[in-house]
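Good morning,

Both structures are done.
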Amino acid sequence: MSNELLGTVAHIGEAKTPAPKITGFHHIAYRCRDADETRKFYVDLLGLKPAAALAFDRDPGGRDRPFMHLFFEMGDGKFIAFFDEPGSADDAVFRMKDGIEDYHFAFEVATRAELDDFIARLKEAKVPVFGPIDHHFCHSIYFFDPNGLACEITVRDAKHDEIMEAEGGRVAQAIREWTEKTRALKKARLKLLNAAD
């Protein structure tokens, strides 16, 4: 797939229609290697509610490409979703990703005791789990699902909201400082960043 469809910020000034308020995620979606294995991990192990398993013979473009779209519901009514598309399954896709800094999703629990219960449960199921790590506004544990996706379970610390509010007030300044510090390195490494200038 080419980069022609990548969003850009080059013409943001031309957008005159006000942005409606995004109320949150409906779902986030990933590819999975097997629907039943993924259901067992997210429903039987992590306790999410099975919400839908939709089988299709054709993709949205009308091509013959059978796939299943799975949805698992979290306690807030939002979903994590998966695509099981056997025609393009490849072991290289379902390996452990490079790490949590590439991408991961973070589930949230209400108490530290619940976080500790998940540590025990994952260890009992022989799922390697790391943490808890103190991020100074939350504590988190990390593990990988059978598809190689990095997962986090986090609990907010007592000062979470206070810290996030203070950080929110300095986002523009922090990004400006970071951009000044890293722009030369990125311009040397990223063709698309140079094309945007």
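Second structure follows.
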Amino acid sequence: MFRTVLVAVDGSEISHRALEEALAVARAMQASVHAVHVVQTGVYPTMILNNLEPPDIAQQAVLDSLEREADEILADTDRRAAAAGLRITPHKRWGHPGAEIIALAQELSADLTVVGSHGRGRLDRLFLGSVSSYVVDHATSTVMVIRAGPTAQDRER
């Protein structure tokens, strides 16, 4: 039985599917739900940022943009959960997505961690495609990897 469910969200269609699955499990098990969005700062080469003038302002602009995007993704996740009649606790992290997801799952003593099989686009897959593999390899609890296909809502219809 799952009491605490953690779902990783990145705003992609596959993460929306992961959220739907996590909410379905939480509803069935009467579990609490947590959502995490990890801002992966390592993808943005410092070389590019350092060539912009002045570097501190350019770096801060990128970080501010990433922060706003994370807030929007978590707000959308909260709206989707509320529409499904559930409350969700949002978490925003910075760093390596796989490591941060695992760390939060351990902090929360999550029984189930739900992740999408890939990120938002082809380039993201080069960097993020290994996130689900990382989570599967390092998790101490159950992991559900969501692939493209019918959602929990689709199956109920």
